TrEMBL record:
Every Sphingomyelin synthase-like domain range: 152-212
Taxonomy of the source species: Bacteria, Pseudomonadati, Bacteroidota, Chitinophagia, Chitinophagales
Name of the molecule in the record: PAP2 superfamily C-terminal
Top-level taxon in the UniProt lineage: Bacteria
UniProt organism field: Chitinophaga costaii
Annotated transmembrane regions: 34-56, 76-93, 105-124, 153-169, 176-195
Length: 229
């Protein structure tokens, strides 16, 4: 079996499996999907500071969370930061190797951001009692002038991102490790009282819906890409 290139030449399947980006980049539809996804994500990330400033000024409801009442709040920003960005770095590394993972991660994150804008807008909540500010110098850049937002609650973006990494990765072992890291981050967010329990528990479900939509997008040469571990 051979793969046709844009210039009319052919390459064997083994070459395509070893160079999936080079093969797929020859296809205009794949390029368009990348450009549209990147442009959409840039547009949403540019809007987030404005949106966060808006929701921070409104009043919301305080939930009576019995689990948080049982957990004394502690600052666990460092382990949260380490788990999130190590997982993000590894997933991006795998995405650079596997175009299918890249497309799934790109559009999955795009849909997660869109869905969180909708759910946060519809569900106005005030932060939990005894909240300790989460110190994340990278993520906090998207919060605008405030530097830290307390009302972007339903559903948890940190937990959602970690779950998305686990869903997008292909290897069983790496999916398991990413899933355990996601569970750890969710628990640590509750320890720091950054989110209500419902914010963390619903994140895997809503993120999975976003992932399924992203995964349903047709990816060219899918059968070849699956050969790349």
């Amino acid at each position: 079996m051979e793969v046709k290139w844009k210039n009319g030449t052919s390459r064997p399947v083994a070459y395509a499996a070893q160079h999936p980006w080079k093969v797929n980049w020859q296809i205009p539809a794949f390029k368009r999907r990348v450009f549209i996804g990147v442009a959409g994500l840039i547009a949403i990330l540019s809007y987030l500071p404005v949106f966060f400033q808006h929701i921070e000024q409104r009043n919301g409801y305080v939930l009576h969370d019995f689990i948080l009442r049982l957990l004394p709040s502690h600052d666990v920003s460092v382990p949260i930061f380490v788990l999130i960005w190590l997982s993000a770095g590894y997933t991006l590394f795998r995405a650079m190797q596997q175009p299918e993972v890249f497309i799934c991660l790109l559009y999955g994150f795009l849909f997660v951001c869109l869905s969180r804008i909708i759910t946060i807008y519809l569900v106005a909540l005030d932060p939990p009692m005894d909240l300790i500010q989460l110190k994340d110098p990278l993520a906090n850049r998207f919060y605008g002038k405030a530097g830290f937002i307390t009302k972007d609650l339903f559903y948890s973006g940190h937990t959602a991102s970690m779950c998305l990494f686990a869903y997008c990765l292909r290897g069983p072992r790496e999916k398991l490790l990413a899933g355990l890291a996601a569970a750890a981050v969710g628990i640590l967010l509750l320890v720091q009282h950054v989110h209500y329990t419902i914010d963390v528990l619903t994140a895997p479900i809503l993120t999975y819906a976003c992932y399924r939509v992203a995964a349903s997008l047709p990816v060219l040469h899918r059968s070849l890409l699956r050969r790349v571990a």
